[in-house]
Every structure is written in C-alpha cells, then in structure tokens.
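tool_call: predict_structure(chain=1)
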Amino acid sequence: MNARRLHKWAATARLVLLLLAAAAAAAAAAAGRREVVTSPHGAVAADDGRCSRIGRDALRDGGNAVDAAVAASLCLGVVSPASSGVGGGAFMLVRLADGTALAYDSRETAPLAASQILAADKKRKKRRYAGQKASTEESLVDETE
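tool_result:
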C-alpha cells in the first residue's frame, strides 16, 4: 500500500470513528432527556396530530379511553390508509374501572371459503398474493361496535 492510499484510508477511518462517537454522544444525551406530560383528563397519541386531536375531542366530549382510541384509529384510516384502516385488524387491551382486564383480538381473517387452492394459479401452480383472492375480511369495524 503506498503512502497516499494509507493516508486516505487513515483519514476515512478517523472520520468514521468521529461519526460513531458523535452518534453515541447524541444517543446518550437524548436518553437523558425524557419529557413527562401529565393530564388530569387523559391523553391521546396517534401517528398524525389531527387524529390525536380527534381522540382528545372524544375524551373532552364525555367519551372514555376506548372511544378515544376508536376515534383516533378511524381517523388514521382516512389520513393514512396505507398503514391503518377499516379493512384491517386491531388488538386492544382494556382495563375496566373495577379492575377487570379484557383483551380483544380483531385481526383480519381470510374468507371462510378461502383455501390455498384458491390462491394458486392453476396453469403455473404458483400462489398469487395479489387481487381479490388475496383479500381478508375486515375486523376493525366489527370490533368498534
């Protein structure tokens, strides 16, 4: 290795080490700063601020935490349909005022008449993962009732 290549390699190595050290320092500083938010009336957090406000409004208008979660979830189905929506599923853990804990599993399911044969291309014997045969039955709307 000639001197010029060695010098470039050493400079690159120093730069990488410097960037790693800076990233580690930033992560350590961020871990030390945790913002604590308190509210006597509850809080709602969603991927989109508009949906958080809709959930908050559900609480303000006399709804409970489940009402706020459903409102925020339905809003996300409108503003972010690729990641959330009425055609999908959901999980929910609820603790009632009396301490009873409930778990809801509302994952989407395949239609009852579906089978692996339906999902196969009969000519090529390949499975197809697109189109109406690959769809699922929504569960989120059923669960919100």
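agent: Residues 37-129 form one domain. Proceeding to next step.
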